[in-house]
Amino acid sequence: MSKFDIPTLFDWLGGMAALDHLTARFYERVKDNEVLAPLFAKMSDEHPRHVAVFLAEVLGGPAAYSDEHGGHPHMIGRHLGRHLSQTRRGEWVRLLLDTADEIGLPDDPEFRSALVGYLEWGSRLAVINSQPGVVWVVIRHSDFKFVPGRPNRFRSSPHVVRTFCGRCGTPLTYQHDDSLHTIDVTTATLDRPEQFPPPVRSGLNTSFLGNR
Questions:
Q1: 139: three-class secondary structure by DSSP
Q2: For residues 81 and 201, is the Cβ–Cβ distance under 8 A?
Q3: What is 9-210's CATH number?
Q4: Residue with more model confidence, 128 or 112
Q5: 3-state secondary structure of 192
Q6: Cβ contact 52:22 at 8 Å
Q7: How confident is the model over 95-127, as pLDDT tens digits?
Q8: For residues 49 and 21, what is the distance between their CA atoms, to the nearest angstrom?
Q9: What is the DSSP letter of 66?
Q10: Phi, psi (5° rounding) for residue 149?
Q11: Among the residues of 80-193, which ranges form H helices?
């Protein structure tokens, strides 16, 4: 690595071993946190490892989460219907950063500002995706285009491009470099979903849409 190369956040924090240490210790502390403990009361023993693998990928490390667990669509599915609040989101970020301090992850301003930026952005997306007013579908990329206008594009990790509304920030699409023939599209959101509780819950086999 030359002096002009900028490491990924994954390399900067110490790689997979550091992330495993971070998530293991973080979820130990979650059990004693009155805000977060109820949310993770039924957490599996594998959950800390899954989160570490996910963070590794989005921070520039191996794409194991996509390979082993289904990538971003799987992560969205894990948050659907959980009705996450901003209070819990903020506490999740705070406790994770405090745990990073506890275990001695890098604390230089450049690394921490980048890490905080990702955690704030990612956790706010999780809140949006957890509300009952979020619907998304996977379709063929060749069958999709924006009419009219252009969204804001953001490469959130080395392998993922997301788009957002430039005015309100609503997530619009997600696409992984390994699945360029399909695109995940947000089809509906509600600003106040609690005012419109769904009378029933339903699912849609998106493979049907991909074959039409």
A1: strand
A2: yes
A3: 1.10.490.10
A4: 112
A5: coil
A6: yes
A7: 999 999 999 999 999 999 999 988 988 888 788
A8: 9
A9: H
A10: 85, 175
A11: 86-103, 109-130
